Amino acid sequence: MDLPQQLKAVTLTHVRYRRGDHLGHFLAWISLVPVFISLGGFVSHFLFRRELQGIFFGVGLVISQLINEFIKTTVEQARPETCTLLEACDSHGWPSSHSQFMFFFATYFSLMACKGIGFWFGLRSRWILNLLHWCLAVVTMYSRVYLGYHTVAQVFAGAALGGVVGASWFWVVNSVLYPYFPVIEESALGRMLCVKDTSHIPDVLKFEYDNARAARNNTKSD
């Protein structure tokens, strides 16, 4: 039995770079941003916020990744030769799932900022956050090429697909699904999970702050 060919790594955080390459080390961490967003951002959002806009944002990212896997297994384009040295070439490379994830995220986030959905900050802070997300998306795309996991064409394909799917899903959520948000909120499952929609509230942070103080004051008065 050829043992190396029988083994397969769990590649969720399996990112390699050349020893002594400080830029490669930095980019290896950058390429894990999608993992941090998925596990840290959306899981904690559901546990503590349970906003329908955020939940459907996460659902869109899952749909985007499923589309990515379907295309990869259909096209079956190989990763670059440099990937052989990384021992991580047991999956196809076109389009890049990291690029697609980050450009979906940046596109959807920017569209939410344009509509003022779910933001607790002023207009200037919103665009600073948008710039940060687009910078992370571009650097993540570059990291996949620099580290040898993808070709330039593969990361640009992922970026384009992520942008298109992100914009399309935003339209679906806010034009097709949004009228049903009250129904979801009032459903048995919605009530059990305490899901809510605050996208109609201009300043969610101030609204929640005022209500929390009012509730505390009412408790003291009782």
From TrEMBL:
<dbReference type="GO" id="GO:0005789">
    <property type="term" value="C:endoplasmic reticulum membrane"/>
</dbReference>
<dbReference type="GO" id="GO:0047874">
    <property type="term" value="F:dolichyldiphosphatase activity"/>
</dbReference>
<feature type="transmembrane region" description="Helical">
    <location>
        <begin position="152"/>
        <end position="172"/>
    </location>
</feature>
<keyword id="KW-0812">Transmembrane</keyword>
<feature type="transmembrane region" description="Helical">
    <location>
        <begin position="101"/>
        <end position="121"/>
    </location>
</feature>
<dbReference type="InterPro" id="IPR039667">
    <property type="entry name" value="Dolichyldiphosphatase_PAP2"/>
</dbReference>
<dbReference type="Pfam" id="PF01569">
    <property type="entry name" value="PAP2"/>
</dbReference>
<keyword id="KW-0472">Membrane</keyword>
<feature type="domain" description="Phosphatidic acid phosphatase type 2/haloperoxidase">
    <location>
        <begin position="54"/>
        <end position="170"/>
    </location>
</feature>
<dbReference type="InterPro" id="IPR000326">
    <property type="entry name" value="PAP2/HPO"/>
</dbReference>
<feature type="transmembrane region" description="Helical">
    <location>
        <begin position="127"/>
        <end position="145"/>
    </location>
</feature>
<dbReference type="InterPro" id="IPR036938">
    <property type="entry name" value="PAP2/HPO_sf"/>
</dbReference>
<keyword id="KW-0378">Hydrolase</keyword>
<dbReference type="GO" id="GO:0006487">
    <property type="term" value="P:protein N-linked glycosylation"/>
</dbReference>
<dbReference type="GO" id="GO:0008610">
    <property type="term" value="P:lipid biosynthetic process"/>
</dbReference>
<keyword id="KW-1133">Transmembrane helix</keyword>
<protein>
    <recommendedName>
        <fullName>Phosphatidic acid phosphatase type 2/haloperoxidase domain-containing protein</fullName>
    </recommendedName>
</protein>
<feature type="transmembrane region" description="Helical">
    <location>
        <begin position="26"/>
        <end position="48"/>
    </location>
</feature>
